[in-house]
Each structure stands twice: as C-alpha cells, then as structure tokens.
C-alpha cells in the first residue's frame, strides 16, 4: 500500500482536506502534516502529525518518522492563518503589497508558501527515489497575474512565493526524473473553500482574494472537489508521463 503525505489538510472545507480524503479512497495510507490540531479528528484513518512546515527542523523530524513515501502533496499556503500566532485569526483588512508589507509579513508568507514546499520536497526526496513516486505542489493564479492593489485576502508576497513554487516544480522535475519521481504543480484560481467564505465575509460583495469575481469568464468560482480531483489524478499512474508542468484550474481567469 502506498503512503501519501499531505500538508495543510487539517481544516475542513480546504483543498488539502479533500485531497487527503480522496487519496484514502485511492487506497493510500495518508499522513497529514499541519498545525491545526482541531481538524485532526475530521480525518479518521489518517496519521496526523502536528508540524510547522515552514520550520525545516520540524519537517525533517516528521519525515524521519516515515519508512516510505510514494506521494507528496504540498497544500499549505495563504497570506493569513499560516503561523502559530495567526492560525485562527482570519483575514487581515487592507492590501499588503511588496512595498508596504512588513519584513515579518514577507518572511511568514514566503515561509508558508515557498520555503515549506522546498523543505518537504527535500525531506521526501530520499524516500521517493527508492521506488519512484509523485509530488504535487499547489501554487495559485496569483503567480500568473499578480494581485491588484486594493484586493483583500491575499498579498503581494503571496503572489511572489507562489511563482517560486512553479519554478521549484520545474527544477525538481529535472533533478528527480531519472529516479522515476514526477513533480507537477496545480495553480487554482478562486476556489469556494472555507478560506474564501472568510474573505467574502469581510470584503465587498462580488470580491475575491484576487479581485472582482466578475472577471472570471466561466462566471463562477471553482470548487474544492474540482481542484482536489485534479491534484489526485496527478498522484496516480494515470498521469505517469506528466512531469514538470503547472496546470491552471481557474475558469479561464488567467487567460482573460
């Protein structure tokens, strides 16, 4: 039986949570790395480890406890609810761009969205290379087009960090391909997760974290289920010759 590690899966209504559930349905043993302990009970059958994935020593300790890894999905991310201090705080008001964010904002957002992916991929690589496997990193449409000033619920540092995830994915695909390890990336647009509901509760009607929702050509936001289905497909043998790519799932909002 394959073992899959999913980061950021403890919060119900999140993409990571749905990915963990679906990987279980695929017959995998699922290990969840997250700080949100309250959500562990919502994932029966999963092994849940409290872990700050922006801390390299915590990541190394978590992976040292695993005998094998066949799949890694990096779902942790966001501009808020990403540190021990703000894990339950909800979205901050006001736009944080590159020129007005604090250095603490920059470090925390980069740590959760980019450093965490690097740390987990590096720690998982020796285990993945033993038999081959799949890595899926979650980026964002924000990496493609940036965040317009005035938008709330996201930030400039988030857009930059998520762009880094795309570059990291391409590089790791080159480095791990000869060992039979595939590395791909999924870039969601606005998704109807629990996080989006919190953003909409404190922002103007019709606004999302990347700007006006009316700019989505399909006329609606995406669902957690749609996004998780794509991620899980990239974890299976059905996509065994696909590596080094970023797949956009955003209702054509990037193309518009």
Summarize the SSE layout with pairings:
Elements: E1 3-7, H1 15-25, E2 29-34, E3 47-50, H2 56-64, E4 71-74, H3 103-128, E5 133-138, H4 142-145, H5 156-176, E6 181-188, H6 194-202, E7 207-208, E8 211-212, H7 224-235, E9 246-249
Parallel strand pairs: 1-2, 1-4, 2-3, 4-5, 5-6, 6-9
Antiparallel strand pairs: 7-8
Helix pairs in contact: 1-7, 2-3, 3-5
Could you describe the 3D structure shown?
With 256 residues, the protein is an alpha/beta fold. The protein has a single domain, classed as NAD(P)-binding Rossmann-like Domain (Rossmann fold). It is 36% helix and 16% strand. The chain is built from seven helices and nine strands. The strands form two sheets. Strands 3-2-1-4-5-6-9 form a seven-stranded parallel sheet, with helices on both faces. The protein has a two-stranded antiparallel ribbon with strand order 7-8. Helix 1 (15-25) packs across helix 7 (224-235) and helix 2 (56-64) runs parallel beside helix 3 (103-128). The longest helix has 26 residues, at 103-128. It is globular. 50% of the residues are buried. The mean pLDDT is 94.
């Amino acid at each position: 039986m394959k073992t899959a590690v999913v980061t950021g899966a403890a919060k119900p209504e999140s993409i990571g949570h749905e990915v963990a559930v679906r990987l279980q349905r695929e017959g995998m043993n699922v290990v969840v790395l997250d700080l949100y302990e309250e959500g562990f009970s919502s994932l029966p059958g999963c092994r849940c480890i409290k872990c700050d994935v922006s801390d390299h020593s915590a990541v190394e300790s978590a992976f040292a406890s695993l005998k094998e890894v066949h799949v890694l999905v990096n779902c942790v991310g966001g501009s808020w609810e990403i540190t021990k201090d703000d894990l339950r705080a909800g979205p901050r008001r006001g736009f944080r761009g590159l020129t007005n964010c604090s250095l603490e904002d920059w470090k925390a957002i980069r740590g959760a969205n980019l450093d965490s992916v690097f740390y987990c991929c590096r720690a998982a690589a020796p285990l993945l290379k033993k038999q081959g496997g799949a890595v899926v990193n979650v980026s964002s449409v924000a990496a493609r087009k940036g965040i317009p000033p005035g938008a709330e619920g996201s930030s400039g540092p988030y857009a930059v960090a998520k762009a880094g995830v795309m570059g990291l994915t391409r590089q790791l695909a080159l480095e791990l391909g000869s060992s039979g390890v595939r590395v791909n990336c999924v870039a969601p647009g606005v998704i109807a997760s629990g996080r989006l509901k919190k953003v909409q509760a404190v922002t103007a009607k019709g606004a999302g974290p990347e700007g006006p929702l009316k700019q989505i050509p399909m006329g609606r936001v995406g669902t957690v289920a749609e996004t998780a289905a794509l991620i899980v497909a990239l974890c299976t043998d059905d996509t065994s010759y696909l590596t080094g790519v970023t797949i956009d799932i955003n209702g054509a909002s990037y193309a518009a």
